[in-house]
Design brief:
Layout (H helix, E strand, L loop, with lengths): L1 H23 L20 H7 L7 E4 L6 H9 L4 E6 L2 H11 L6 E5 L5 H7 L5 E7 L4 H5 L25 H7 L2 H12 L4 H10 L6 H11 L2 H4 L7 H11 L2 H15 E11 L2 H16 L18 E3 L9 H6 L7 E7 L1
Parallel strand pairs: 1-2, 1-4, 2-3, 4-5
Antiparallel strand pairs: 5-7, 6-7
Helix pairs in contact: 8-9, 8-12, 9-10, 13-14
This protein binds S-adenosylmethionine.
């Protein structure tokens, strides 16, 4: 009984936090979220600042600048460094530009994506960087604005693109993928147990026209007992489709490799991920940089000539503290990994 009450209280508080953030993130008549309304609470900010406290002077790359919560704090903490901020979402970049204006020409922002990270650094004249940060996933304004089509709570267009200027939409994935391909997207990106049932239900219900309809189709495809636990039943499906629409894992693999290569000796890289697929990929990429791709049996001296690029500063991922999760439920799934260039 005690547990039930505590759970209910925590759920009510979560709804309240979501409501406040949703109200703060509403757009103006131009269809944009005004910079002052772009509310996103940076996750594990203290841990990011601490992890990047001891870095060489030079350029800091924020590959997911978003509303610039992390970026502004990093600029304040490193007065001799400059920032290269990247985001694929023009709304986020507009908000970041407003928030970072106080740092003048120490900041350069680029509308780009992880896949083009090497190109952006070359064009900015930065062969090497002192640090990088990837704070993955979507920002609160992206999730909360019904028009972006990420939310399973309201009826919005099936869009889900982080960059609405290009690329395929969620509608194309939902209404044109074969059932087997849809099921594999759901399983691969979200470990969805009922991937096949959901995929078949989606195909049978076509055409699906908005996010509320998709959420309904998904929920009814999941057996009733499973619907009662683990949050909204459509949450994993929405996450999986979003990852597919934005090619998130492919982008991350390219971006991470490029960023690690550009780190100067002693430079550090931090990645915050929010689901197991992302974290697995980060761990594999970091491990490969640390071992240099060595394939020799463990506990034997390396005979394959692999050259490590980096050292791991912690073996395990850092998790947010209880206080942070209480005040920002979106931090609850965060995992932070850090590496240092050898
Ligand atoms: C969680 S938010 C970052 C929030 C930011 N750290 C802050 O403090 O406000 C993630 C951001 O990364 C961007 N993003 C995600 N994947 C990207 C990619 N492949 N290339 C560029 N930007 C990306 C999203 O558009 C979003 O604005």
């Amino acid at each position: 009984m005690k547990l039930m009450t505590a759970r209910r209280r925590s759920r009510d508080r979560r709804c309240e936090v979501d409501r406040i953030v949703e109200e703060d993130n509403q757009m103006d008549n131009s269809g944009r979220v005004p910079a002052e309304n772009f509310q996103h609470q940076p996750v594990m900010l203290d841990e990011v600042l601490e992890s990047l406290s001891d870095i060489p002077e030079g350029a800091i790359l924020d590959a997911t600048v978003g509303g610039a919560g992390h970026a502004a704090a990093l600029m304040a903490a490193h007065p001799d460094s400059n920032l290269i901020g990247i985001d694929r979402d023009p709304d986020a970049l507009a908000a970041a530009a407003g928030r970072l204006s106080a740092f003048g020409d120490r900041v350069a922002l680029h509308h780009s994506e992880f896949g083009d990270l090497g190109l952006v650094l070359d064009e900015a004249g930065n062969r090497q960087i002192s640090a990088f940060l990837f704070d993955l996933g979507v920002s609160s304004p992206q999730l909360d604005r019904v028009e972006r089509g990420f939310s399973y709570r309201h009826a919005g267009p099936l869009d889900m693109r982080m960059d609405q200027t290009r690329g395929r939409t969620a509608s194309e994935v939902v209404n044109s993928y074969r059932a087997a391909d849809l099921a594999s997207v759901l399983y691969r990106n979200s470990d969805e147990r009922y991937a096949r049932r959901i995929a078949e239900a989606i195909v049978a219900a076509r055409p699906i026209t908005d996010t509320a309809e998709l959420a309904e189709v998904v929920s009814s495809a999941i057996p009733a007992p499973a619907r009662r636990s683990g949050g909204h039943p459509a949450k994993r499906t929405f996450q999986a489709i979003r990852i597919e629409v934005n090619s998130e894992l492919e982008q991350l693999a390219i971006g991470l490799d490029a960023a690690i290569k550009r780190l100067r000796p002693g430079g550090r890289g931090v990645v915050i991920s929010y689901h197991s697929g992302e974290d697995r990929l980060v761990k594999v990429r970091f491990d490969r940089a640390v071992t240099g791709g060595c394939t020799c049996p463990p506990r034997l001296p390396c005979g394959c000539g692999a050259v490590p690029e980096a050292v791991a500063l912690r073996r395990r991922a850092l998790r947010p503290g209880e206080t942070e999760v209480e005040s920002n439920p979106r931090a609850s799934s965060a995992r932070l990994r850090i590496l240092e260039r050898a």
